[in-house]
Structure formats: structure tokens, C-alpha cells
Write a structure and sequence with these properties.
The protein has 80 residues and is of the alpha+beta class. 19% of the residues are buried.
């Protein structure tokens, strides 16, 4: 974001304590409960991305008309 001079909304950045499907679900539930929902969700692992997708399905937000949301695992990210 910084490299492209785009502002990052830090309140929409969620850090998970572990990299499980359940952690991805919980983080996504928290993000989706906000008034301002994210446009995209990036998971540092496939499990986090799967959890995000499951949380979106639980809320029945799979239609692009309901929530134009993209979920992508970030394969080359490094956890610190």
C-alpha cells in the first residue's frame, strides 16, 4: 500500500494469534460485524483464507450483489 501511495485503514487490519481455519473465521466475523466492511480479505495461509470463506458463507454473503468481497491467501507473506 505504501509503495503505491495508497492509504491503509489500520482498523481493518486484523492480526490472528494462530493460523487456523477457526482463527480465520473469527477474524472475518469481527471484520464483517463492523459498519465499514473490507473490500478484500488477504489470509497469510490457506487455512485463514478458508476460515474467511466459511465465515462469509455463514453470513450468507456469497452473492456479489450482497458483498463484493475477494478472499485470497498470500503465499509469499512472512509471519513475524
Amino acid at each position: 500500500m505504501e509503495a503505491n501511495h495508497l492509504p491503509a485503514k489500520t482498523e481493518l487490519i486484523w492480526h490472528c494469534s494462530d493460523f487456523t481455519v477457526e482463527a480465520g473465521k473469527e477474524a472475518t466475523r469481527q471484520l464483517l460485524s463492523r459498519q465499514e466492511r473490507p473490500d478484500a480479505i488477504f489470509g497469510i495461509t490457506d487455512d485463514l483464507a478458508i476460515g474467511a470463506i466459511e465465515a462469509i458463507k455463514e453470513k450468507d454473503l456469497t452473492s456479489r450483489k450482497t458483498l463484493p468481497l475477494s478472499v485470497s491467501p498470500t503465499r509469499n507473506a512472512h509471519a513475524t
